[in-house]
Request: fold
Amino acid sequence: MAAGRKAKRPVRRRVKAEGEMRLARVGTAAVLRATGRPWNEWLSVLDRAGARTLPHKDIALLLSRKFGVPDWWSQMVTVGYEQARGLRAPGERAGGYAANASRTVGAGLAHLYDAWSDAATRERWLMDAPIEVRRSTDGKSMRLTWTPGDSRVDVTFAARGPDKSQVAVEHGKLASAHAAKAQKAYWSAALARLKALLEATR
Reply:
């Protein structure tokens, strides 16, 4: 290389500010890394492919078969596209609406999980919630049924340090956006009570 000449740096694709959006709870940067395109490009590509008139399943198949998008990301891009084009309301899933809430607590993972799995402890913060435990994996997850209406509650647990852990709740199969909003408020309040209980008894 001639003296004084600098080596060319590899060109990195950048997402323009106007392309920064969040659909299906996934940001532009994450979609770009996983699929090779940011949200604004996927919206244009799917419009040109006639996706506005296609059902959810066919859009996902189009993404997977024609554009080589991995299966999980095909579903996420499809949901994001449907939200952006008014074909699906935020929070609406294939089986209904969903509400999400999470909380990091100052307690170890074992204590957090026990507060859910032990019925007596659970009663102290969740009180008379109409739930039935369907299955559980120690320290990792639980699946509950919310018995009025048989909606489903998925709970996941993760360690965030020796004395810190996190719980995430997704309440799915809800009938409407109004129901999802109400359950989000319910779970946010319940997790606040759980946090207070665990941190008071350390």
Summary: Residues 17-88 form one domain. DSSP finds seven helices and eight strands in the chain.
